[in-house]
Design goal:
There is one protein chain. By secondary structure, this protein is of the alpha/beta class. Helices cover 40% and strands 17% of the residues. Helix 3 crosses helix 10, helix 4 packs parallel to helix 5 and helix 12 packs across helix 14. It is globular and about 70 Å long. Bound molecules: the ligand Cc1ncc(COP(=O)(O)O)c(CN[C@@H](CS)C(=O)O)c1O. The ligand Cc1ncc(COP(=O)(O)O)c(CN[C@@H](CS)C(=O)O)c1O binds next to helix 4.
Length: 404
């Protein structure tokens, strides 16, 4: 699909917001859904709906094929070695909690160190704090610079012989910073640590190859990749997943059950208890088809060009301060306007049809670092245009004039 045709693929972007054409700049929270994904999910419920892995009748077998076909698409999308390494979860948050509650509780003990960074999303902070309360592990936080960058030397300085796990964000949702995760993985391996990468914001914006990165776990959410909500993926190296205890217990994750003993199912089903989000997985498969029809490298280049244009245009506004100026960024711009509160700005900008986030973005430590209560955040999708940026800039100017 050509980028010039992309916007037409999103029905929601045709609507007016407060009498103005909608300019959606909150893809970092959730991306919009192309008609191909909507139609795929509708067709599943119209023609294929049945429970998976259980029926010996055609409809269930077709639903199972569609569900497992989506898993294979994810495998190829991440360049994982096996479908067994692709676990469907609700989203990035559940993926990280699954690792914390299974691998973490099994392998970590008092005094072990888990390394995260200052720019993490709360879903990659709090699960480890829960383990700190339960097991007495030590949480080591890599500081970021005032540009919102993690310097590799600062990361390496946090690694010790006690480091058991490094869990870091690939691309910051609050700043847009893209971290040097390949180098971070190599440095972590030198001290024998496992590595989990939070790919929630990276996967929609760039090509991800988990084998090239050599990470042990990789997590992302379907709804940020133009797919439905309620579906996400945990990638894990097969040997690690095989050795981990189940996360949740019930149907489908078992091989046999007696009151004396239960044998668990094989991968990936050991981690998929109960009826899965069948339509969500199939919809995620359609979302992968959509982004691959454009090309991740094409998407990355286009969004980088949008980011450059938006940065240049926003910087012309008096009193506007961009939060997060790392040299390597993805399609996210956080900013504040002196003398205003982000919530007031966003409320006024909504009157101009502009939808963008005003929040701490579930990254309160980032806000503390920059000494701001919140930021305005414009986060881009494949459907955004230069005209959207011009509308954003005009709305910021107008709101600023009304508030300052
Ligand atoms: C880097 C990162 N890591 C984890 C998550 C959680 O994704 P879930 O799909 O909600 O489980 C998110 C979701 N960030 C949204 C909601 S706060 C944002 O507006 O930035 C994220 O950006």
């Amino acid at each position: 699909m050509n980028l010039s045709d992309v916007k037409d693929a999103f029905p929601i972007l045709k609507q007016l917001e407060n009498g103005q054409p909608l300019v959606y700049l909150d893809s970092g929270a959730t991306a919009q859904t192309p008609v191909s994904v909507i139609d795929t999910i509708a067709r599943y419920y119209r023609e294929e709906n049945a429970n998976v892995h259980r029926g010996v009748y055609g409809l269930s077998e077709r639903a199972t094929d569609a569900y497992e076909g989506a898993r294979s698409k994810v495998r190829r999308f991440l360049n994982a070695a096996s479908d067994k390494e692709i676990i469907f979860v609700r989203g990035t948050t559940e993926a990280i909690n699954l690792v914390a509650q299974t691998w973490g509780r099994r392998h970590l003990k008092a005094g072990d160190e888990v390394v995260i960074t200052e720019m993490e999303h709360h879903s990659n902070i709090v699960p480890w704090q829960l383990l700190r309360e339960e097991l007495g592990i030590k949480l080591v936080v890599v500081p970021m610079t005032d540009d919102g960058e993690i310097r590799l030397a600062d990361f390496e300085a946090c690694l010790t012989s006690k480091t058991q796990l490094v869990s870091v964000v690939h691309m910051s949702n609050a700043l847009g910073t893209i971290n040097p995760v390949a180098d971070m993985v190599q440095a972590a391996k030198k001290v024998g640590a496992k590595v989990l990468l939070d790919g929630a914001q990276a996967v929609p914006h760039m090509s991800v190859d988990v084998r090239a990165l050599d990470c042990d776990f990789y997590a992302f959410s379907g709804h940020k990749l133009y797919g439905p909500t309620g579906i996400g993926v945990l990638y894990g190296k097969e040997a690690l997943l095989d050795a981990m205890p189940p996360y949740q217990a019930g149907g489908d994750m078992i091989y046999s059950v007696t009151f004396d003993k239960t044998e668990y199912n094989v991968l990936p089903y050991k981690f998929e208890a109960g009826t899965p989000n069948i339509s969500g997985a199939i919809g995620l498969g359609a979302a992968i088809d959509f982004v691959e029809s454009i090309g991740l490298d094409t998407i990355a280049a286009y969004e980088h060009e949008l980011l450059t244009y938006a940065t240049r245009q926003l910087q012309t506004i008096d009193g506007l301060r961009i939060i997060g100026t790392a040299p390597n960024k993805g399609g996210v711009i956080s900013f504040i306007v002196e003398g205003t509160h982000p919530h007031d700005m966003a409320t006024l900008m909504d009157q101009d049809g502009i939808a963008l986030r005003a929040s701490h973005h579930c990254a309160m430590p980032v806000m503390q670092h920059f000494d701001v209560p919140a930021t305005l955040r414009a986060s881009f999708g494949v459907y955004n245009t230069h005209e959207d940026i011009d509308r954003l800039v005009a709305a910021v100017e107008e709101a600023r004039t009304m508030l300052v």
